[in-house]
Amino acid sequence: MQALSSLVLLGALTATVAAQGFDPPTAPDLDPDPNVVEVQLTAAVTTWQFVPGIDTTVWTYNDSTPGPTIVGEVGQTLRVRFTNQLPQPTTIHWHGVEITAPMDGSHISQRPVAPGESFVYEFPLLREGLYWYHPHVSTFHQVEMGLHGCLLVRAPLAQRQALGLTDRGGQPLVEEHVVVFDDVMLDTDPASPNYMQIMPAFPYAGGVDPLKNADYHTNGRIGTHLLVNGKLAGTTTLMVPAGTSQRWRVINVANSTFCRLDLNDAATGMGGVDIWEIGSDGGFESRAFKKFAVQPTRTFGDHPEQTLLNHMGQGITLLPAERVDVVFTPTGAGGQVFTIQQKDWFRGRHMAIYGPTGSIMLPDDPLDGFYPDQPYFKVQLIARPGPVDPLPWVPLPRASWEAAVPFPPPVEPTKTVKVTFGHAPPDAAGDVTFFSLADFSSGSMRPIPAAKVTSFDAPDLEVGDQFMWEVTNLTHGDHPFHVHGFFFELVEYEWIDDLDPTLNLKWQPTARRMFKDVIRAPARLGGLGTSRCITRLVAHVDDTGRQGQISAEGETATFAPSGAWTSGGWLMHCHILEHSGKGMLAFFEVRDPAAPIALLGRHLDGTQGKASLTANSTFLPGSTLNLDLVNALPCAPAVLIAGDAVGRLSLFGGEIVPGGGFIGLPTSVGCGGEITFGLDGWDLLPPGAELYFQYAIADAGAPQGLALSNALRFRRP
User: Fold this and answer.
1) pTM of the predicted protein model
2) DSSP tag of 320
3) Cα-flanking dihedrals φ and ψ of residue 26, to 5°?
4) Within its chain, how far is the Cα of 151 from the centroid?
5) Digit-coded pLDDT (tens) for 593-618
6) Handedness of CA 702, 703, 705, 709 (dihedral sign)
7) CA distance 142 to 245
8) I need a surface site. Which of 60, 144, 202, 502 has the fewest CB within 10 A?
């Protein structure tokens, strides 16, 4: 009877806590079909009180920041009817979700949703875990304005029961909460007409303050006010039943701030005695891991504890966009209160100064890792009426846990994809250009910032590939490396110093497995140009549950006459949003190795935007290969360029791809902005032979009086 009484009491107390409104709101499911979750999201401008009593203009989903938490279960289909009422285009990116490529919501996977327009996102929910949604257009600005929310995908009931998280009836045996860590940069000048309004993106650019601008670029946007679930840190109290096990899913949605929460209150001696990490970005881990107590940062020599990776296991440490799933049982009697603190983390901050020649230099910030603790929120324990045992949660034995949380066989990589994180020195205005790809073919490094990445620079992968990410960090700051659409697992970190062998070391994780989509790429330890840190990760281009829907190629979405589209490549980038916005972003392409058509090149926008070139055929002998152009300037003169090799002629920032013995066929665009060109005789080519096609369109309204479509490659089946 005690066990039953405990469950009944837990349910009652959980309902009481939920009524406090600590957690973000939950989006209602509008579809009665048990296999479908349908929600409505509207992005709009409204006001919000970060600071009690002061209205701040924000951008929100459904009038809330964070936006409503969408709740589904593995196996269901999620349908989101989205309307944009913002003053600028936007998208919704489904961060961490193993999603179909056209639904990813990046700025290159779809055409952004214009103000006043709507779009429907629909995709299967394949894996349990806490994910989140946010824009991928001017991400550094729109996320900071308040556009973010959580997607909670629950595990199947049988798995939750096996792990002791849910009873036979589906009721939770632990109290669950979502904690959204964030900060916001407000104008704190009382004399400013924008007092307590969100500061604009890159507010010190354009010569306003070159040193502050360099700090902003390199350190990212560090908020003036810390937030918990959209409320000012230090002003919120969560009331929980004494002795009741807590399951907290914590997410860091801040632009740049690293989260490091200490759940043990040194002042009161209360808090989470044993904190069990049971899940990460990609859901349950292969075993529960007991977290370490948070220790203060110490120094040794010139380098604080940047390489001591056990610190990553202390408390709740999350880089921007990371998530964690923890269970703990707070100690203490009813009425007692303990405070959760935000601790600083040595992440490699810089402090811009003028050097002897007047140029801007970026030495280390001497306070990095030592900034004062900040009270995050309080937890007040509620006394339990009657003599009821609290039944604290404990993890299953390792073998039982592994049986309940099966993992696929380890990835065996057959190829390597190289990523290079770095940046140029600040210019005179304090602007800094970042990059995530580099070309070493000439024997020296040629950085490739995001704006210059083409499909020829982008790494190519095929469906089914097992491969290794090799992320080389050339900077003296940590970066959160994020990949769209696919998880990875950490293999090792390696620090290399060409001058000081004492700084050469490797670190490999423990045997437990977890799926990640964001991970710390640690800073180099030695000097610029002579040291680096390499993060090695393994991944699988797996299309299970989304067969035929993960191909993504080209620099932006390419549309067919039917309106269907092929996503531009999958993104990879630093999730310090100011870094990705300034160039630390690229894409990789995923192709079906059996597909005869590939999308290539760098198009040149016309007055209609991108003119999309696609192809279709049955590819049977005697059939016609149809080349379809859409969204070109209606009735304009055009030339179809065809060649049997790659030429890659740069033209006004675009690129003419066909080369070899290329020819130009004059034609004209139809008055609907389309052309269809039928090519017969392709089956006379030998198998494997390649042809390249691209359109050039006369467009007086375009900046150069010319538009270029994307190119495509036809490979004879």
Assistant:
1) 0.94
2) T
3) -105, 135
4) 13
5) 999 999 999 999 999 999 999 999 99
6) negative
7) 36
8) 502
